[in-house]
Amino acid sequence: MKNKQLGFTAFELIVAALVLAGIGGWVANIVKLIGMIDGVVTAMFVIRIVGLFVPPLGAILGFM
What we know:
70% helix, rod-shaped
């Protein structure tokens, strides 16, 4: 009989934390983009729009 332990491995926890951080960054990018709507069109504004459709880029920009 095998003794199975309950819980997650360290790798699974790290992956879950990275996924949650990525989703949070992507949402933060959307919030920052909405705040930029009344301003002028800058390169950062355009890159944030691209970040909506390219989630890894949006996640990084959300933390900037």
